[in-house]
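Hello again, I could really use a second opinion on something today. I've dropped the whole record in just underneath, so have a look.
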Amino acid sequence: MQFQISNFKFQISKGFTLIELMIILTAITIISGVGITSFVSYNNLQTLNKASSELTTAFLVAKSRALSQVKPESCVGELQGHGIYIEGAQIYQSFAACSGGWYDIKTHLLPKGTAIQQEFWGKSFTFRVLTGNVEIPDMFDEYLIRIGAYLWTREIVIFKNGRILQTDDYSNIKK
C-alpha cells in the first residue's frame, strides 16, 4: 500500500527485514548461552554444597552417637567411639569403634561429579565416647578435608576437641 502526501511518498511495510531478524536471533542466542552456562554452574555448585553437607552431617552424627553411647548390636566388647573412614574419592563409611574392632554402620557415596581430594583417602576420624574428642590422623590439632567439584572446593575442618566447621575457605577464618 502506498500513499502520497504532497511530494513525499510513504510505503508501509508488513513484516521485518532480514537484517532485523538476524539481529534478534543473534541477541536470543547470546542471552540463551549465558543463561544455560549460568544454570549449569549453579547446578554444579549446588551438587558440591550437597556433598559437603552430607559429609559434615556424617561427622556430626558420628560425634552425636559417640556422646550418647549408641552401641550397635554387632559391636563386640566395650564401645570406644564412632567415626568416619574416608575410603576413596566418593566413598566414606561410618563405623563404631569397639574393643573388638571396627564395625561398619553404613557406606556413603558422594553425589556424582564431586570428590574428596586424594590426600584424605584412607584416613579415619574417631569420636570418643562421652568426651566427643576426636582422634585425628597424624596427631594434628585440626584436620582440613577438601571436597571438590568442577571449579569449586568446600572445606570441612575437624578440631581435636570435636568441633566441626564447614567453610568455603578456612584460611580466612580466625581460629
Summary: The CA atoms of residues 41 and 150 lie 9 Å apart. The chain has one domain: 16-172. Residues 16-172 form a domain with the minor pseudopilin epsh fold fold (CATH 3.55.40.10). The first helix runs from residue 18 to 68.
